[in-house]
## 1
Amino acid sequence: METAVNAQGLSKWFGEGEARTMAVRDVSFEAYLGEMLYIVGPSGSGKTTLLSMISGILRPNAGKVMVEGSDIWSLSNDGIAEFRLNRVGFVFQDYHLFPRLTTVENVAIPLILKKKAWSEAVDVAMQYLEIVGLRERADLPPVKLSGGEQQRVAIARAIAGKPDLLIFDEPTASLDGDTGRKIVSFVKENILNEQRCIIIVTHDSRIYEYADRIMKMEDGVLKGIANGANHEK
Amino acid sequence: MKGILKIAFKLLVNDKGKFAALLVGITFAVFLIVMMTSMFSGILKRSSATVLNVGAKVWVMDPAVNTVANSIPMPDYVLDAVRSIDGVKYAVPLYSGGAQVKLSSGLYQSVTVLGLDDATLYGRPRLLSGNMEDIYAENAFVVVKDAEFRKLDNPKIGTEFDINDHKGVVVGIAKVTTSGLFGVPTLYTTYSRAVTYIPSTRFTTAYILVEPKSEAAIPHIENEVRKLGYQALTKDEFIAKISDFYKYQTGLGTNVMLMTIISFIVGLSISGQTFYTFILENLEKFGALKAIGSKGRELVFMILFQASFTALAGYGLGVGLATVIITLARLRLPSYAAQITYLNLGFAFVMVLVIAAISSYIGVRKVLRIEPFDIFRG
């Protein structure tokens, strides 16, 4: 399988001197296109910090994040922003949809940031709403949607820019168990493909069944990578 | 960039409550600033009404004169001395004083009387009706048709009245550029009749109006008049002197300045606070945009656009409201002094830009500090 991201010796600490807290310590791993990789572990284990470093959000204190042979953290601030815009799609835990924009306008945001004309961006966003089954809700504000629907809008927004790395932060945290499983199943069936790697941070064991591989973090250290139940599929 | 600005626009105007509060704050501030400065402009302009209406290029006066109404009469020899200055084409006396007019209704009305040089009538107003030559007729006066005209019971040509126990008759109705400040009607007559009809001190020449041979001669004339112990000022210098008196030697300037500052602070407080709350409420969303891939400068543009749009909309509404109020006030009160000038508008515009700049500066600082990682951490 082709490598999507290669993390090499990533470390991150916060604070200095006696107040220094080691969040992630010397973590190395590879994520591949076409796989759904879970990062799991208890609260405070460094999952979100690790996810932030490989997605161009948080600069590591040590180590590299190699994408197509280049360390993304050697790029300028604008270069990193371009990397996030063009290569990464985010589904935040609280979705972070814009309540003053319509659903379709929310989905169009990455396209607008990519300098697409407004009408063209909205047309394309409509196609992604179709994929997540919310075309008929396009003109509603997100606050009028259920939690599961908002999650799907956030997914549509994340994939609208055609990223090859899709990041989910605790995707089921705000959903009931059934809806959470449906969402992850939907992502597995409809969003994952050979040109895309999906990394999910979660401690919801009910959705482990959809993982290709599961990375276990503890106290900022990678404790191991196991094949998920879905690995053979 | 257009798409980003459209997002900024929708985030702003779709938050109707905050957008309305922002508009009200800026509109109110602009309205107050424009009203205050317009009233001040109107008062200053009217305080120089005689200077503007007479129109002489150079005015000779006692150096202690601060306003055109408070003239200090000069001895006759000054007129002869000024006429003999090299560079003076001609010089004529002007009488300026107050009198009481008894109307046919039996009521008394204070008036300003301007006595024009008998030989030249230099500084005469433009007549709406009547003939200027009739001013030489017995008891003749020309009445200015301005906001105060009605206080003389709207006289017509031929209307008679008493002025300081002399007969007076209206021989012309005149129009002038600007009404006076003190709300009294203005009568024009000849210099000789004015000094005859109105009790005076030993000296009667309030001002000497000078026509220089050229603009270049004015500094020399001013210098020579200074040697006589008097002061020669160009029309603009005299207007500036009167304005300075009202600005700095009365409480008027200070009060208007204080009110303008208070208006600015009120506008800044309402708009700044509301805009700050708006930014705080949207801070996570700006962080999300940053995480998605928006660059810092794009977020700065969004905030500047939101602040500028609100400021300009509020500016337009504030100026419009002030214009409506002044227009309505003039319909009811013809002597209402306020006037909106380009300077007032420019001043209010600068104040609004300052409000927008301060408000957006606070927002920009907040937004640039938010890290996408904070969005992940929740």
## 2
Amino acid sequence: MNTVLALSGVVIKEMCRRKDFYVLFVLTAVITLVMGSVNFFGDAKIVRYLKDICLLLIWISALVIAITTTARQIPAERESRTIFPLLAKPVSRGQVILGKFLGCWLACGMALLVFYVFFGVISGSREHEWPFLQYFQAFWLQWTMLGVVVGMVLLGSVVFTAPSSNATILFIVVVGIIALGRHLNQVALQQPEPLGTLVYAVYFLIPHLEWYDVRDLVIYNQHQLGWLDCGLATVYAAAYVAMLLFATGMVFRRKSLNL
Amino acid sequence: MMDAIVELKNLRVEFKAQNSGQGRKVAVKDLNLRVEAGEVFGFLGPNGAGKTTTMNVLLGFVNATSGSAFLFGVNVCEPIARQRIGYLPEMTYYYKFLTAEELLRFYARIFGLSRLEADRRIDQLLKLVELESVRKRPIKTYSKGMQQRVGLAQALINNPDLLILDEPTSGLDPIGRMKVREIIQRLKSEGKTIFFSSHELGEVETVCDRVAIINQGELKAEGRVVDLVEKHQANLEKIFLKIIGYEPQVSA
């Protein structure tokens, strides 16, 4: 575990020393504040619109951070050949995968926390309400979902050689799942066989990332989610993460270390 | 019989040839080798002879096609076999966004050193490689020689009993080479085992107790440096050239 934590520490340091997170955060903050300064049509409930914009930017930024940070981890180790002195230590390839996953997930969590604190301050200052538990649930579910995304990108990073192609493909897949995943079963019903069965199979195989999107509940100050539902969603994501990491380990074990 | 620190038994490594018409390429052919505790062992051969492949098997980067390799009697497939070794690659491959101190602390943590012990080792090693004054600077700002010295420090962080050095003085200026040689001599006097490859045959002759010469994946000669010099009545460079079958072209 010490090795895995040490490896994750390097990933977090790397994220803190790169500009990606700062650029995205400043961009989110600037866009939200500019939007917040305008009141269209004298709408008294403008704060909802502000929250909607801010959460959308947080979702996009978090996905960009998760995908770009994770996509470069293994290819960069192979390209810069830092993997050699690392594996010359008592470190297995499985530990490298676990360390990279943990580092990327924790780094995403830290970035997400900063975004949510900003969101909380902005919405709280306008609404004068502080639904901490609801924000925590939204944060937790999004962070859990990012765990699955990090797992998917890590698997992609040992399959695809170029981080850019991995990042592009995975970004499309993740956005596709979030936007269309929930409708696949209905699409399947309208398809002739065997296409219908195939679409159904895809519906059951893909991780349903859209379940973790509770933005509407936060925007419209709706009821809090049940903790059991949150727990089950966490278990569901953990199962996918475990499967993805196992597959990544299997591929990486056979992979040549040279690019 | 003394304990072997490094042991290769009928080691064979084959690769799929890059040109598909060539089938499989044999990089190492049934290599047998033993390195005893406290020895400085030179692993020599021309480029493409199989030195790096053999080292890669020892370090667990490449799996043997057949045969086996052991470090301290433990099969190299087990990560724990690398607990007591230090490895210095030919080129500097480190996380350049980290400082030298952070890099050493990272590796110390991997070896399970306590914070106190890590602090002590880091201070000691940065002093040894003369990087104390720049310990807080990112590695990307270091010169090549400084980066190679960080490499040496990371190879020694766990106070290893075996050091595997892949052309440790390659690309260094004469002062850098002398410093690395001094460190090797010092480690030798401390009873450490050193396994290194180098093209600097004069340096090998000075530093090594025993050498092995391989060519095209096959072991061509092995023995004590003094014995080889006495047997062939020539220096190590001439012996090396003779063994690998190089005929110098003398023009009038």
## 3
Amino acid sequence: MAEFSTTVKLPVQLAKMAEEYVQEGWSIDMNSLIVEALRRYMETHQAQILERFIEEDVEWGLNGDE
Amino acid sequence: MSKAVLDAGPLIHLSELGALDVLGDFEVLYIPPVVWEEVIHHQPDAAIHADLSLERVEAPIVDSKLATFAKMFSLDPGELQSLAVMADYPDALFLTDDSAARLVAEEFGYKVHGTLGLLVRAVRKGHRSPKEILAVLRDLQKKSSLHIRSSLLSDVIRKLEEEWQSR
């Protein structure tokens, strides 16, 4: 799998929590943890999900029965 | 008249847009402690808006199922608390602009909507004119921190123009 390398700055507290998580054995290493976190973020912020929410909001706004 | 539980997003975004009045007809708007702190920090005007029936509620108990979902979906503390409040008011509307919180709310069977829906609803309820809401939507990306893809927002505005013109 091709890989892309970048540098990110993490808030200290968040980085500490991530390190503890890795040390406890919940993730292989920091890199794997960040990849998994990013993947999960992308899963819950997919364009089609966001678009569905917007369509539902417009429909409710126009025709809601509450 | 209806009840709703607030996450911080809609309060902050509506305040940025000068449109907090669209929440004015809710009988009660429940707001948990962390969300209150978030709003006070980012948009204090929203918290003191005189015409809103904000009711601050105590920190709710988070059950294990919700705690698990919160971890799976990386919910922030405000989203978690507002969803926990929903457990006490399952017939209320959950108001959030966060997609992960919205997905979890759906999982629990709650009715959930966001800032955009509230703005459009204000026309249906007769609180704002179509012209006013279209103006708010056209300024949305300039005035608020609510992120909507430009082309999608344009599509929404076009649809609303057609819809309201035909009525």
